[in-house]
Write a structure and sequence with these properties.
Length: 379
């Protein structure tokens, strides 16, 4: 039996990561592939040389110690990543959602992604699918809206009037999540299998210093503007402000993503920003006429199986009939302990919003994209 190690350290760009370093009595042929320049070759090779023990088939403790000190890290790559659990044991999983595109170039108005973490017991060779959210796109000029970030962020529509007086929005940030079923990011059966989600931030708009909605906690933030998208929650997506001179067509968030308001060929010079992706997506800001600015995007909500206050989807749910259990535990019975949920504004959540603790920093510069990290704790 041949086992291949493809990557452990920071800076991975591979779309599939298969880490198989288990102690099997038949695993006498273990191939080492140093395809990534970040490998500490000597240390890994030394550990692999001692991995197989013909007498006891025990996992080499030196290698386990190495894994504890060198977590698996997953930057944004724009596609799902397959993670093959290397050892049965307890793992700490940390996720960061993506930020919006910061339409006016100011981080003070930016909708920021959230952070979630928890410890979970996993089995050797169990497969997890990691979806790391992309940052929302910034507006290109005064009439071209920003693209939505990968994994659920909504795109901001273009303005009909190509002049400096128009206001356009940034795209919402994508969520970062862990799934049990792979597939395209927006496939329902894949979205339904999520056991942990860090929400993405809602989009800001040009010519405004108002704050876009950051990702939740249990509930995402609303955009700080009279015309706005609202934050996603545990059982429904964020809505958006409605009045006679605003279009709210298709702007409410959905399970797993924010919806992009369509481009209109006339009437709307001031277009809204995209909502953030999440467990449920934030509402996208409505497009406006007259002197009213377009709306800010709302932030997406976060979710952790086992975290008090979360509301898990039922296994029998379909895309047209989503049902919730009123319980925090995912139907897979995979449950996290020692959970932590921090919204994009730095507030920690139990089953309610708590005190400011600040967002933990990812291990690398993400440029507003999401990030994921898996640390082996022990058997």
């Amino acid at each position: 039996m041949k086992k291949v190690i493809l990557g452990i350290l920071i800076g991975l760009s591979l779309s599939t990561i298969s880490v198989v370093a288990i102690s099997l009595c038949n695993a006498k042929d273990i191939e080492y592939k140093a395809s990534d320049t970040n490998w500490d070759v000597d240390t890994v090779e030394d550990a692999l040389n001692d991995l197989y023990n013909e007498n006891s088939c025990d996992v080499n403790e030196e290698f386990l110690t190495y894994l504890k000190k060198h977590p698996f890290t997953f930057p944004y790559v724009g596609e799902s990543i397959e993670y093959d659990v290397p050892f049965s044991g307890t793992y700490l999983i940390e996720l960061w959602g993506a930020d919006d595109g910061s339409a006016n170039g100011s981080t003070t108005s930016q909708g920021q992604g959230g952070y979630v973490s928890g410890e979970i017991k996993l089995k050797n060779n169990q497969i997890l699918y990691i979806y790391v959210g992309g940052a929302g796109g910034a507006n290109q000029n005064s009439y071209t809206g920003g693209k939505g970030g990968w994994n659920g962020g909504a795109t901001a529509p273009n303005s009909y009037f190509k002049n400096a007086g128009s206001t356009v929005g940034a795209g919402g940030g994508g969520a970062t999540d862990i799934r049990l079923v792979g597939g395209e990011w927006n496939e329902f059966e894949s979205l339904k299998s999520r056991i942990m989600v860090a929400g993405g931030g809602g989009g800001a708009i040009t010519l405004s210093s108002n704050k876009a909605g950051s990702a939740g906690g249990l509930v995402g933030y609303n955009g700080n503007h009279v015309h706005t998208g609202y934050g996603g929650a545990q059982t429904e997506g964020g809505a958006c402000y409605s009045s006679s001179n605003l279009t709210t067509s298709n702007c409410q968030g959905s399970f797993g993503y924010a919806n992009s308001i369509p481009y209109y060929s006339s009437r709307y010079p001031n277009t809204g920003a995209g909502g953030g992706g999440g467990y449920y997506g934030g509402g996208s800001g409505p497009s406006a006429v007259g002197a009213n600015n377009g709306g800010l995007g709302g932030g997406g909500s976060s979710f952790i199986s086992g975290h008090d206050g979360c509301n898990a989807i039922l296994a029998e749910s379909t895309e047209s009939d989503i049902k919730h259990s009123s319980d925090s535990k995912h139907y897979s019975n995979l449950v996290f302990t020692n959970t932590k949920m921090i919204d994009g504004e730095g507030y920690e959540w139990t089953n309610v919003k708590g005190e400011v603790v600040g967002l933990p920093e990812p291990d690398i510069e993400t440029n507003g994209n999401g990030f994921a990290k898996i640390t082996y704790i022990g058997q």
